[in-house]
Specification:
The chain is of the alpha/beta class. The protein has one domain: 2,3-Dihydroxybiphenyl 1,2-Dioxygenase, domain 1 (Roll), CATH 3.10.180. Helix content is about 20%, strand content about 30%. The strands form two sheets. It has a four-stranded mixed β-sheet, covered by helices on one side. Strands 5-8-7-6 form a four-stranded mixed β-sheet, covered by helices on one side. β3 (about 35-40) and β4 form a beta hairpin.
Length: about 130
């Protein structure tokens, strides 16, 4: 059997708000309910299962490989919602995108401060590293 990544839990303060944000910003299907979770499924069958947590929880990084056309659409939604965005994961290059490996990438926060990333070329796939 091939090993495939299937799902991950995403801690949040409001699972409806966070899962709907993720689905909307990435143009994915509406979240579905599975037990205590609201699940957002990506096109390759991996789901992000949102679960509410009280108190402090670790903020994570979630990266999504998308096409150039999808990048334009996601980036447009980021700008329409007036979200802060960065070219780097350290949040030093604000209001910029990157062009690593000859593609485009951008980082932005979800409602709970998880760092989301969309990129059009996998790291190490070639092109310029900028």
């Amino acid at each position: 059997m091939a090993i495939e990544f299937n799902h991950t839990l995403v801690a949040c303060t409001d699972k409806a708000r966070s899962s709907n944000f993720m689905a909307q910003i990435l143009n994915l299907p509406e979240p579905s309910t599975y037990g205590a979770f609201l699940c957002v499924e990506t096109d390759n069958g991996v789901s992000l299962d949102f679960v509410e947590r009280e108190g402090d929880f670790a903020r994570q990084h979630y990266a999504f490989l998308i096409s150039e056309d999808e990048f334009d659409q996601v980036f447009s939604r980021i700008q329409e919602q007036k979200l802060d965005y960065w070219a780097d994961p350290f949040r030093k290059q604000q209001s910029e995108i990157n062009h690593r490996d000859g593609g485009r990438g951008v980082y932005f926060d979800d409602p709970d401060g998880h760092l989301l990333e969309v990129l059009t070329r996998p790291y190490g796939s070639g092109g310029q590293n900028a």
